[in-house]
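FORM 7B: Structural annotation worksheet

SECTION A. Query
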Amino acid sequence: IDTTTNSVVRTIAVGKRPRGVAISPDRRRVYIANGNSDDISVIDAEAGKVVAMWPAGVDPEGVALSPDGARLYAVNENGGTVTVINTKTGTVIATIEVQVEPESIAISPNGQIAYVSNETSNTLSVIDTSALKVVVAIPVAKNPRGIAFSPNGKYAYVASEQAEPGMLSVIEVARHRVIKSIPVGERPVGVVVARDGRRLY
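SECTION B. Predicted structure
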């Protein structure tokens, strides 16, 4: 999409039922999670075409990259797992079991942990990215979806879609615990933090 004119300038065919999108730090690659074909489409951003297809788990949805772009994490909603892929080779490094119906994933700014929202379990799974295993699960409000870290990595924010009222949980990352719950609009899903960390949307 040309954001000046808000018009579609190119359409790229990927796998079946495209869902999550992640862009490499150098902006050269775009990764698409394809829920119904259980794979990841790798797009050359400049050429605007798919250059590789990588296997993921069952029904991949949320995707995120490590800060250095070396690893891609794909959340497999129906499989209850996270697939970790080496972005240089396209090979699977690890498959990590999380909880029921994982949805989204966010990587901390220092790359040391990943938070995965589990919709049906009402938790966040905390993954140690060095050990590639879950170290704790954080209880949050009902049906957690989108996640974002503050730029300094001290806090994380998760939107709980089915909480009454719609709820945003603020998590102290050092202790992996909810320190505040903020009522927001109905059925919150996505979360974005401004680059200066002063606003959250």
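SECTION C. Observations
The longest strand covers residues 49-55. The chain has no helices and 16 strands.

SECTION D. Sign-off
Analyst initials: ____
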